[in-house]
Design a protein that fits this description.
With 418 residues, the chain is an alpha/beta fold. The protein has 8 helices and 26 strands. It has helices spanning 15-26, 55-58, 64-77, 141-151, 166-177, 196-203, 263-267, 305-323, and strands at 2-11, 32-35, 81-83, 87-92, 96-101, 105-116, 120-122, 131-132, 138-140, 158-162, 181-187, 210-212, 214-220, 227-232, 245-248, 251-254, 258-260, 292-294, 332-337, 341-345, 348-350, 358-364, 371-377, 382-388, 397-401, 407-413.
């Protein structure tokens, strides 16, 4: 067994992990170790050849690979220990990481602080209760993306997409450009799950139909998908008898949501938020376990990679503050998700006066054409009131405030005058 020591260990080399490692080193950490199970850095960005990344951070439209390369180039110049093809097996008490790779065998890494940046994974067919056999041709949108963009394979000739998340919308366009006949995108909800710009650019521009309040109920075919049965659903999301349609296809692409990758977090004793499915965080992005921080899609599923990188840098600043003894055990106050707020992260506010402003990220429960973001303290004092032209569940809202004490965050209906 090889034993190592590092000030800060970052698990995952996607956009959150890269940003966290670089920020930690920039702020003065003596040793930073980045652990990645893949052979290359960049995480999911390696297979994202479409543009739209970096608009907020760099002011220009980049592909996912271009966005990642900016950070990878900085990594090559930074004094950061990078361990690729390294699988983290366990986070033990007292911030010890057990990992393994082909070169070193088992690694026992003693850490001053740990930043979780493992990203998220896609839901599968059993998780959305689709009936039928298990034939070839049922794939997640991310798998299809990797096959086409990185491996050079076309996984089918005629496709149906279930779910209108952003990756599914983007792959509807990508498959069409590669000659695959996309029959349509089916969404069980009454409104799309992806960003408006992706609805327009990926579906409308290519005449790909979007079927709202409709889902796939059955997969037909034994060795290979031959067709699927779609059915309309009511407001209760239950199938409406007599509305079934059989759609011939040899590929069913699942874009039915993402789940933070938190198996390691749970084993480490980290408290998980039932709404975000990620760790409960405080304003330093520290989890319920002292010295363990979280950033990016492992904390909550983000819509923009710019926000993911921002959260990684916030976690790095928190980790450095922990190492320097600046995060005391003075406790924290809660953040309440109020009217039309699905979730907010971080969920707690530290009581240290040195924290400064806190970056918050939230999603709403339902679309509102005109809204007002209101943040108020326990005594009813409004510390932020912000008008928004339009809010919708797929679009994450970010804001930054300095606050002490319990906080209530609401999204109220508001008539905005032009």
């Amino acid at each position: 067994m090889k034993r190592l020591h590092t000030d800060i260990a970052v698990i995952g080399a996607g956009p959150a992990g890269l940003a966290a490692a670089l920020e930690a080193k920039r702020l003065g950490a003596d040793t930073v170790t980045l652990l990645e199970r893949d052979a290359d850095l960049g995480g999911i960005l390696q297979q994202c050849i479409h543009d739209g990344f970096g608009i907020h951070r760099f002011g220009r439209r980049l592909s996912g690979t271009q966005y990642a390369q900016i950070f990878i180039d900085q990594m090559e110049k930074a004094d950061i220990d990078v361990l690729t093809e390294t699988m983290v097996l366990e986070i033990a008490p007292n911030r010890r990481i057990f990992a393994c790779n082909k070169q070193d065998g088992i690694l026992d890494i003693e850490c001053g602080a740990i930043i979780l940046a493992m990203g998220c994974r896609e839901r599968t067919a059993p998780q959305v209760l689709i009936y039928g056999d298990r034939p070839a041709g049922v794939m997640s949108a991310g798998a299809v993306q990797r096959y086409i963009n990185m491996e050079g394979y076309l996984p089918g000739r005629t496709a149906v997409i279930l779910g209108s998340g952003d990756i599914g919308l983007i792959m509807a366009r990508r498959m069409t450009l590669e000659g695959i006949n996309v029959k349509g995108v089916y969404e069980v909800m009454e409104s799309p799950g992806g960003l408006t710009r992706n609805i327009v650019q990926c579906l409308d521009d290519f005449n790909i139909p979007l079927h709202l309040s409709e889902t796939v109920s059955w997969i037909h075919g034994h060795n290979r998908v031959e067709s699927v049965t779609t059915v309309k659903v009511g407001a209760d999301r239950k199938p409406i008898p007599g509305t079934e349609t059989v759609v011939p296809c040899d590929l069913l692409v699942l874009a039915v949501g993402l789940i933070p990758e938190n198996e390691l977090s749970v084993k480490a004793g980290v408290e998980i938020d039932s709404r975000t499915k990620g760790p409960v965080l405080d304003s330093a992005f520290m989890t319920s376990v002292p010295g363990i921080f979280a950033a990016g899609n492992v904390a909550a599923v983000f819509d923009l990679v710019d926000y993911v990188s921002q959260s990684g840098e916030t976690a790095a600043r928190g980790a450095l503050a922990f190492l320097r003894g600046e995060l005391s055990a003075s406790g924290w106050d809660t953040v309440e998700a109020g009217e039309n707020v699905s979730f907010v992260t971080p969920q707690r506010i530290r009581r240290e006066t040195s924290i400064g402003k806190t970056s918050f990220f939230l999603r709403v429960k339902k679309p509102m054409p005109e809204a007002k973001l209101v943040c108020s303290t326990e005594d009813g004092n409004v510390i932020l009131r912000k008008r928004l032209r339009h809010v919708a569940p797929p679009e994450m809202i970010s804001f930054e405030i300095e606050v002490r004490g319990p906080l209530l965050i609401e999204m109220r209906s508001e008539t905005i005058r032009s």
